[in-house]
Amino acid sequence: MPEEGSKFKTQATHILKQQASDFLCRIFNSYLEVAIDRNNRAGHTETVETAFLQVMKGHTGMMAKLLSFNEDWLLCSIPIVVTTAELFRVRFHAGNVPLKTGKIEAGDVTVDPIDFCAVNYHPNDELSVKSQFTSMQRESVRSDLMYWQRRTIFVVQGEKVRGFLGWLNEFRPSHNS
Predict the structure, then answer these.
(1) Residue 176 confidence (pLDDT)
(2) pTM value?
(3) Residue 29 vs residues 62, 68, 76, 117, 124: alpha-carbon distances, Å
């Protein structure tokens, strides 16, 4: 139990838990945004990076503000980007990509549509929430990247939000875990 007169009446912890990816929600460490124009040519855009940075700035600010209040808070905050874009899981063998050109042949790629996914995003240090409840130490570059800078953002295709929320309701961490 917390000490008498402490800011929090409940025993709070801040944990980051690693677990295997659920079949319905793949977790990716890399991503690529590609736009197709009317002449059937591909082009790269930067809106996904902007969306990830924006959602992490808002999430970090909200968590810092909530932690600063002199009230009890039991919450789970989940950053989500909802997009009108189609989402795909793309699989290929890196050994089939020539280092000279970096181009992947169409026959070497498998593309599967997905409704939603999670992306491990690495924002800058200013977006790491400082919490008195974390038990993890900043002791190495590896721990910094794995536990302090990595944030998982869910990306959901707009028309699939209802299915995502149903999955999230079933999959979310319980208060007992």
Answers:
(1) 47
(2) 0.72
(3) 25, 31, 22, 11, 16
